[in-house]
Amino acid sequence: MADYREKFWRLRLEACRKALERNHFAAWVVPSVREARDLFREQILPNLTPAPRTASWGDSQTLHATGILDEIRRNPEIELIETFDPAVPRETLIERRRQALLVDLFLTGSSAVTEAGQLVNLDMIGNRIGGITFGPRHVVLFIGRNKLTGNIEEAMRRIKQVSAPLNAMRHEGFKLPCAATGRCMDCDSPQRICNTWSITEKSYPKGRIRVILINEDHGL
Predict the structure, then answer these.
(1) pLDDT tens digits, residue range 32-61?
(2) The domain containing residue 136 runs over which residues?
């Protein structure tokens, strides 16, 4: 007997894919992070024009789960700008994140995606949404099914009340009230991770942003 949960999400993700394509994104639905990696390796990367010589990424647990970053690190034809090396001073990492806005290929996830095919994101620094919005020639997003929401308002509510507290807990060095309470406190902390919103309603130019929807729960 087919897994009805898988079918439920496949139908919803397929509808989201069609909405994304109407909004000029390139979009795919895959069953797992393994298929997401294979799709990127076999179909997306070889067809990027011109072939990317530089790449970087915005923080994303879903991206990490695919193993793609390790593959790019082993690729002698692509220089990967590392922006999250704990051994590197923060000032150097910030400068690298500025450089990452001019790479050929930018990889990351999304805080949420709506059923109408819109991307909703909230950042601390803004390097992730900056890379999505403008700069890199090509952007590829990896999004788990748990990020799918009914509309922008639902997406923003989920991000503030679920994703942000979980993310604060994940970064143990940050002393944020939401990490202690499990809910957004609209804090004034200098370490606040919720500073800049972005809503991407359409990809410009058409096809610049590629979205891989994954029929598994990944990320926060």
Answers:
(1) 999 999 999 999 999 999 999 999 999 999
(2) 4-214
